[in-house]
Amino acid sequence: GENVEQHPSTLSVQEGDSAVIKCTYSDSASNYFPWYKQELGKRPQLIIDIRSNVGEKKDQRIAVTLNKTAKHFSLHITETQPEDSAVYFCAASLNTGKLIFGQGTTLQVKP
Amino acid sequence: EPEVTQTPSHQVTQMGQEVILHCVPISNHLYFYWYRQILGQKVEFLVSFYNNEISEKSEIFDDQFSVERPDGSNFTLKIRSTKLEDSAMYFCASSQEQGARTEAFFGQGTRLTVV
Description:
The complex is a heterodimer. In chain A, 0% of the residues lie in helices and 57% in strands. Chain B is mainly β. Chain B is 0% helix and 50% strand. The interface between A and B is medium-sized, with 26 and 23 residues.
C-alpha cells in the first residue's frame, strides 16, 4: 500500500544553521506533497506544499524540493530560529485527497 | 481567516461507550476528512467524505466507526463501542477541492481518552 518514510526522526541544530528533512514515497502516482508543522498539543499547520509538476518551491526561509524519478522530496529550513522547534510531518497525496503522512521529525533549534 | 472547528477539545469516556466527535468544516469546502494521531505517533487517515457519502476509508475505519453530515455545517465521527486503543487525538480536516488542487485545513483536534 501507500507509504511515506521520513528521516531523521529527531534533528537538533544550532540557531542560524540549516535543517533538512527528507521523505520518500511509494506510490508513483502521488502528485501533491505538503509539509505540516505541529507544535505540542496543537493542530498540524501547512507550511509549504509542492505539486508534481514543479521541482522546487521556496517561501522565505523554507524550501521544498521534489525528485519524481527517485520518489523523494525534502524540506529545507535556512537560518533556523528557536520558534522553528516543532514536529514536522511530510505527506503525499493522490487525487483522492487522502494524505499519507510520514512518521514525523522532531526539530530542536538550540539558541 | 476561516478555521475548521472541533468540539469538544477533550473527551473522556468509559470503555464500551459511544462517543460522537463534532466538526464544523470551513463553509465553502466540499471534502471532509477524519484523521487520528496516537500520542507520539504519526497522523493516520481514517475516512474521506464527499457529496454525503464516504469516498474512501482506511482499514482502521471498521464497523465501529461511522461519519455523518447531519446538516449543512456539521460533520461528525461516531465510535460505537470505544476501546482503550481508540485513545488518540482525532483531527477533522476539510478542503475546497480534491487532492493536488487544494490544501487541507485541520481543526485543532479532539483528544479522546478511553478509560
